[in-house]
Amino acid sequence: MEFYHVLNRGVDKRTIFNTSADHARFVHDLYVFNDTKPAPDAYRRIMWDLRSPTSDTRKKLVDIHGWCLMGNHYHLLISERREGGITKFIRKLNIGYSKYYNDIHMRSGTLFHGRTKKILIERDAHFLHILHYIHLNPLDFLAGAEKWRMSGVKDTERALAHLKEYRWSSFKDYCGEKNFPSVIEKDFFEEAYGGVARKSFAYIDEMDLSAIGELVE
């Protein structure tokens, strides 16, 4: 099984998630577009309750193991379920969300900056850091912790509390809260990490800044 860190940002670093409704729509799209079937019409889609789906008849293109939405970009950690699945999924996701965003915010033109970046997780060190790194991104919004990539985190408990409160990532689901459980596949990384949430405190407290530096290059 191969894992990929997938990320893209708004053109000219523009904000692509302006409101909670924008965030919710993108998470909804993570679910709906992860299917071999053609994407539903953007204006006729039903916003399903992703916390308690009644049934799941999708033939998934990918497994989403982790995700995080920031103001002007997103991160995904995914693996392919069928040949060409990642390319098809990302195309549907970016096009679908762009159509929604442009309509709601009364704009036109390209929303995302060029081709989506897709990084194969090849080294053990990268594998051991990547999901934690994705989940730590919301520290950018925590006063006093914005430079965590360069100087680490001084107050681990405060940082962890902030991450647990941030709704727009898979971390809450890994902490046992049903945030958007139908979007992600947790089992592999729960087993591989020996409990993602349980290991997060030690990861933040003993942060390897050199490893973080490699992830953001």
Automatic annotation (TrEMBL):
<feature type="domain" description="Transposase IS200-like">
    <location>
        <begin position="2"/>
        <end position="137"/>
    </location>
</feature>
<dbReference type="GO" id="GO:0003677">
    <property type="term" value="F:DNA binding"/>
</dbReference>
<dbReference type="InterPro" id="IPR036515">
    <property type="entry name" value="Transposase_17_sf"/>
</dbReference>
<protein>
    <recommendedName>
        <fullName>Transposase IS200-like domain-containing protein</fullName>
    </recommendedName>
</protein>
<dbReference type="GO" id="GO:0004803">
    <property type="term" value="F:transposase activity"/>
</dbReference>
<dbReference type="GO" id="GO:0006313">
    <property type="term" value="P:DNA transposition"/>
</dbReference>
<dbReference type="Pfam" id="PF01797">
    <property type="entry name" value="Y1_Tnp"/>
</dbReference>
<dbReference type="InterPro" id="IPR002686">
    <property type="entry name" value="Transposase_17"/>
</dbReference>
